[in-house]
Design a protein that fits this description.
Rossmann fold, 3-stranded parallel β-sheet, 15% strand, ATP binding, glutamate-tRNA ligase activity
């Protein structure tokens, strides 16, 4: 398997899958077939307050109903918090991570720019705390999260590039330059769970030997941060393919938060897997 392309489909079990997930899954398994590789299933359930075992079971049920299969065992992120902590400590030893005690309200009040997702860019307040001030905050028990010192990480990593395949799966690869500075100092270890999406996905892609990543175009900008983390952690950078999104009647992408109609709903209405394929363009 190490000598062939290896991909992953990595949903979060915080709700039922919808047509947007079906599109992403079909893209991943089609890409694996096109490139002569294998697609894995990974369950990204680090958000332990929202993710539920019954949703994980439903994901497996829906994917099997669509006719998709994968090698076992399936990687479960909630079983890997110690792995993420070890990776974070490697960065901490090089001063590439620092503690942040700011509340969301304080960040919003002091930010003067936004990131590609439209969220306030952290103004770097806690980056300038002295060791004594940090120790005092720790001893006081103030809630803390840990951020990437992005400028230092970029300086250490050097030029950041990655390979993109597209717009079709058989197009000639192109080299792009990552621009992680536009994200500021992102959170790598959240206050509640000790890791973050950006961090865990990079660590797990490396652990599984993922060579090609398919993701929606809405995640293209986040690749900047992932490439930077791959470099400073000593990982290889996979190739990327960014696929189209399915939009609802409001022009926005389908999502669980908008209660988009689920695959289970469609199945109860008599839809077949072939109906789903046609609906998402496969």
């Amino acid at each position: 398997m190490s000598n062939q392309p290896l991909l992953r489909f990595a949903p979060s079990p915080n709700g039922r899958l919808h047509l947007g997930h079906a599109l992403s899954a079909f893209v991943t398994w089609t890409a694996a077939k096109t490139w002569g590789g294998t697609a894995l299933l990974r369950i990204e359930d680090i958000d332990i307050n929202r993710c539920k075992p019954e949703f994980t079971e439903a994901i497996v049920e829906d994917l099997h109903w669509l006719g998709l299969s994968w090698p076992e065992p399936v990687m479960i992120q909630s079983e890997r918090f110690e792995v993420y902590a070890d990776a974070a400590n490697r960065l901490r030893q090089r001063d590439l991570i620092y503690p942040c005690f700011c509340t969301r309200a304080e960040i919003v009040a002091n930010a003067d720019a936004t990131d590609p997702d439209g969220a306030p860019i952290y103004p770097g307040t806690c980056k300038h705390l002295s060791n004594a001030e940090r120790i005092e905050r720790f001893q006081r028990g103030d809630p803390v999260q840990f951020r990437l010192h992005t400028d230092l990480a970029i300086e250490e990593a050097g030029m950041l590039t990655y390979t993109v395949i597209g717009p079709t799966l058989t197009d000639r690869p192109q080299i792009r330059y990552a621009r992680p500075q536009r994200w500021g100092d992102v959170v790598l270890q959240r206050k509640d769970i000790g890791t973050s999406y950006h961090f865990s996905v990079v660590v797990d892609d490396a652990a599984q030997g993922i060579t090609h990543i398919t993701r929606g175009r809405d995640m293209e900008a986040a690749t900047d941060i992932h490439v930077l983390l791959q470099m400073v952690l000593g990982y290889s950078t996979p190739n990327y393919y960014f696929h189209r999104l399915l939009l609802g009647d409001d022009g926005q992408k389908l999502s669980k938060s908008k209660n988009s109609q689920t695959l289970a709903d469609l199945r109860s209405e008599g839809w077949t897997p072939d109906d789903v394929r046609r609906a998402v363009g496969f």
